[in-house]
Design brief:
The structure is a homodimer of 120-residue chains.
Chain A: H1 18-29, E1 34-35, H2 36-43, H3 47-59, E2 63-70, E3 73-80, H4 82-108
The structure holds a DNA duplex (30 and 30 nucleotides).
Chain lengths: 120, 120
DNA sequence: CGGCGTACTTTGCATCAGAAAGTTGATGCA
DNA sequence: TGCATCAACTTTCTGATGCAAAGTACGCCG
């Protein structure tokens, strides 16, 4: 019986990553597509990192990237795909469980006795 | 004004990692030290990975590892340090915020209109 | 027409998670 | 006793990857 109550398999590495988590949250929060520069600002990322992480998210089918123009300047915009939104929600469910488990745990184990030197 | 509301700086990479998060939660949940084999079971990790991640956590001062014997078999036990518990709690605070932001966001942005082809 | 700024992309490096192989020593058994 | 097995870890290796720095392309200003 391989019970592994704390294994948290649902923490997909594509989503469970600071920068990407940040991007997805930003995107989820804004119904309209967001521009490259907006995301950069919202998530505090450098151009290079943003480009890279967006690439990863697109590759995984989580976001849709559209390269167009505003006037005659290039403007890259980005939105969640429906599948992306779903996976994000699923991920969040797991994350909620983690937080619940952990918060509970942290409270419970608060008074951790003295370091007894192990009977043997 | 570098506002980056979704930057989540508090998501320390040492903690924000599936295996390690799993380990810390296990440890936080159990007031008594846990044995290597217990952690392996609880977190669904292989020997090698467990060893590696425990090493990282110890290096970072988050856990204390004690190598002893039970009878005459080696028995490695592990517990959170006070500092470790604190950092875990801090991390959880950020994670809670992420979940809150994101859950809110996911609900809000639910009805994402059709993919309008960008005026230009 | 030459430098500057915007808007990204590409490259390179250093780290690191996970898998596989190795180590040490106790126990079973013939 | 000698050999094989198993338990409990550790070490090594390799591919992936996050981040930073350099690079590209193009419009705009003077």
């Amino acid at each position: 019986m391989p019970e592994a109550p704390y294994a948290y398999d649902g923490l997909d590495r594509v989503l469970h990553e600071r920068a990407r988590l940040s991007l997805l949250t930003s995107l989820a929060a804004h119904p309209k597509p967001l521009a490259f520069a907006d995301l950069k600002q919202l998530c505090g990322l450098t151009d290079g990192n943003l480009s890279r992480h967006l690439g990863v998210l697109e590759e995984a089918g989580l976001v849709e990237i559209r390269k167009g123009y505003e006037g005659r300047r290039p403007l890259t915009t980005c939105r969640l795909t429906p599948a992306g939104r779903q996976r994000f929600v699923d991920y969040l469910t797991v994350l909620e469980r983690v937080v619940r488990d952990a918060a509970e745990a942290a409270r419970q184990g608060q008074v951790d006795g003295d370091p007894e030197p192990l009977p043997a």
